[in-house]
């Protein structure tokens, strides 16, 4: 059976996962520059070793209240994209899990709201459900929530 690895993270106590091959790194950061007139999901910009990175707030993408960027360090999941690295602002970083492709289940038809476009499917873990994130949709700040 084919297997895959997912880097996990939490947003509002929901467990999400992204294929490890799409992850550049995970960092904790606290100095962001706001972007006037940017879509609400753009949490800000930050400098990562000389490269300007846009940070997309996963809480906003899920229709939740905005992440506080001024209270302590914020967790960033830096993803590789064709256009360069982009950060997902998340509540907590988890670990890496090995999953069997055969255990993947598509998103249920009754899933509604912003999560519908963000969740590509799910994996049943021992004690919880891990939602497989559709990275392209999560990084899109032009789609309405």
TrEMBL record:
Name of the protein in question? CheW-like domain-containing protein
Signal peptide boundaries: none
Give the matching Pfam families: CheW
Which stretches make up the CheW-like domain? 3-144
Q: Which SMART domains match?
A: CheW
Instruction: Tell me the organism.
Output: Luedemannella flava
Q: Which SUPFAM superfamilies match?
A: CheW-like
What InterPro entries would the database entry show? CheW, CheW-like_dom_sf, CheW-lke_dom
List, alphabetically, the PANTHER family matched.
CHEMOTAXIS PROTEIN CHEW (PTHR22617:SF23), CHEMOTAXIS SENSOR HISTIDINE KINASE-RELATED (PTHR22617)
Which chain regions cross the lipid bilayer? Answer: none
């Amino acid at each position: 059976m084919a297997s895959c690895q997912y880097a996990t993270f939490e947003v509002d106590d929901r467990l999400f996962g992204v294929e490890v091959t799409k992850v550049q790194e995970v960092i904790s950061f606290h100095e962001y520059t706001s972007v006037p007139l940017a879509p609400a999901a753009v949490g800000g910009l930050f400098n990562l070793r000389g490269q300007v990175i846009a940070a997309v707030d996963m809480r906003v993408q899920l229709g939740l209240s905005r992440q506080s960027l001024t209270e302590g360090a914020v967790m960033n999941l830096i993803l590789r994209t064709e256009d360069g690295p982009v950060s997902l602002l998340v509540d907590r970083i988890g670990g890496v899990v090995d999953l069997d492709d055969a255990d993947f289940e598509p998103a249920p038809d009754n899933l509604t709201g912003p999560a519908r476009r963000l969740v590509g499917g799910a994996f049943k873990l021992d004690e919880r459900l891990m939602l497989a994130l559709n990275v392209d949709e999560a990084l899109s700040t032009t789609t309405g929530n």
